[in-house]
Prior knowledge:
It is a single chain. The chain has a single domain, classed as Methylamine Dehydrogenase, Chain H. The protein is mostly beta strands and 383 residues long. The protein contains no helices and 39 strands. The chain has strands at 23-27, 30-34, 41-42, 48-55, 59-64, 68-73, 77-82, 90-93, 99-103, 107-111, 118-122, 128-132, 137-141, 144-149, 154-159, 165-170, 173-176, 180-185, 188-193, 199-205, 217-220, 223-227, 231-236, 242-247, 251-257, 261-266, 269-273, 280-284, 287-290, 296-298, 303-306, 313-316, 321-323, 326-331, 334-339, 345-350, 352-360, 363-368, 372-378. The strands form 10 sheets. It has a 4-stranded antiparallel beta sheet, with no helix packed on it. Strands 5-6-7-8 form a 4-stranded antiparallel beta sheet, with no helix packed on it. The two termini are 40 Å apart. Keywords: Membrane, Transmembrane, Transmembrane helix.
Amino acid sequence: MLIDLDVTPVDRERVRATRPVAYVVVAVAVVTLLLLAGSAVLPRGAGVVEVLKADGMGLSASLLTTEAVYIVRADGRVEATPLCAGCPEWRTQVTTGQRLRLGAGGTLVVDENDAGAATFLDARTGAVLWSLSGFPIVELVGGRVAEWSPEDGVLRLRELRTGRLFWKRPAEAFVGDDRRVVLLEKGRAAVYAAESGRELTGWRDVGVRGEPGAVAAQIVGERLVVFDAQRIAGFRLDGLEREWQTPVVSPFGVGGCGDGLLCAIGFEGLTVLDPATGRVRWSGPQWRLVSNGGLLTDESGRSARVGLATGRVEHDFGRGRPIDHLLFYPEGDRTTLVGAADGRVRGVIPRVTPDACQTAGDLLSCLRYDLTVTIWRIKPATT
């Protein structure tokens, strides 16, 4: 279970409107992107190719992989549409959900719905493997599933494919990785082996009280990092001895970033720390979002590739919205795509809302304004 650093800024675009973006000019085989800040010119990319267009009517959740696009609809239909020969193609009916994830062993998890159900399916065949009820909080922990029940306050670790119970313990909240699960209870923590439930470190006071689904703790490497309104502290997982404590104002998202660093997003922007010592490497009050691709976005919507070890801006992308390894520049009836790694234009697609898009390998999927799901293949940039 991870606390997402990709925190949504306040001024997110609505269905047909965006925050200020770059202006795109397209003329005969030349794609020139003018950035608002300085009108810098980015080189031309190799383009995109449309692969598939699917019906997005009634879409509740979707997931793009390199083999198929999976769609959950409001009426509970789940569909797999293949993106290659011999790839998954099926339809089935389950309790609908607003979250769709792919776990180990090709297991799809559909949850977050008014019925309080979680359904586990075979991603290749669409067969329903098993299900949970009672409004459980479900997280994928390594190749297992952690289920916390609000009815009895008990955490259960189960086999992902079958639902077979490995072990259970009472807890207020939890975090975990593929080897360990940390239980949080009344400001204390204990460490257990994820596979067997064997106690590795007994209960210790760590000064944080978690709530299921919004835990103020993270496993980062061999440390448990906890945070509250005024501080971040690091504890060795082996023994839960506190190594350091650093004052940080109102952090609300903490996680590993860059090359062995710790990033905290909070009321005063971004703080980057050394997880071994807690020493602040640098801070940037203007930065409000850290994307999955490692790009930073400030409060005005400007994005940049920043050296997380130093805080130095390596490439300013202007008002591009980062999604994984791409930046989106919507304007008028089209969107220009720019590669985050090299700043090269990848191509132009019809106008989309960036937050309705996802990537997998060289594929890009977006729910468009006409309620279709379109998938494009992004060609490599030419030299």
